[in-house]
Fold:
Amino acid sequence: MVDFDLRSAHEHMRASNPLIQCITNTVVQQFSANVLLAIGAAPAMLDHEADAAQFTRIASGLLVNFGTATNQQFLAADAAIDAANEDSKPWVLDPVSIGAVDFRTTRIRRAAASGPTAIRGNASEIAALAGVGLGGRGVDSTDEVDAVIPAAAELARSTGAIVAVSGPRDAIVAHIDGVDHVARLDGGHSYMPLVIGTGCSLGAVTAAYLVGATTASARFDAVIAAHAHFKVAGERAATGAKGPGSYSVNFLDALYTLDAKQLAGAQIEADTFEGSQS
Structure:
C-alpha cells in the first residue's frame, strides 16, 4: 500500500481558502458554489469574456466545464486558460458530454491540448477524449472505469495532466518519470448520481486541492485528496438520507464536517506500470 499525504493536502487547502474561478454550466453553478464553500474554498462564477482573464490572475485556480456552454463562455475559457498558464495557476478541464455533438467536442479537444493540470470526467468522457470511445449518453457514462484506465494513462502522457475517472470506484492516473501511477478509491453512495452537480462540482474541488501543488507527485496527491474528500463525504451523507433530496443536504454537511484525520482514512489501492514516453 502506497501512502498518500491526504492529510497535508486537506490541511493546506483549508488553510489557504483558495478562490476558484468556475467557468461551468448553468445547471450546477449554485451547487458547485455551495460545495466549494463547504470544503473551505471560495467560489467565483465569473465567465464573461471581457474580464475572465483578468479575474483568473486574481483567482487561485480555474475550472473549465462546457456543460451548457455559450459563445461567451467559450471565449472566456480561451482567455482564462491562457492567463492561468501564463501565471502557472492550476486549472481543471471537465470534458462534459464530449462526443455528443461535434462543436462541443472540438472545443473540448482544443482545451485539452492547452495544458490542463488535471482532467476529470466519467469513463465514457475520458475514453472519448483519449480517442478510443464515442462518449456516453449525454452526461451519463456507458463505460466501466477499469476498462478505460489504459486510455486515461495515454491521455495523461499526451497532455501532462493528472487524469481522474469518476465512477462507483474512481481511478486517478498520473504519468510521472516514465511510469504510470494509478490510484483507485472506493466510497460514495448510489444516491450521488441522482444529485445534479456532484460530478461537475468535483472538478471545482479538484482545482481547489491543486492550488499550491507544484510537483507532479504533489499534484497526484492533491487530485486523490479531492476525490477522497468526495468519496468519504458521499458515504457518510447516506446516513439518515431518505432519498436524493435529503442526501444532497447531508452531502454538503458531510463535506463541511470532514476533517483531515477522516480523509486520511480513505481506502486507496495504488498500482504502477511502465508507460510509454510521450
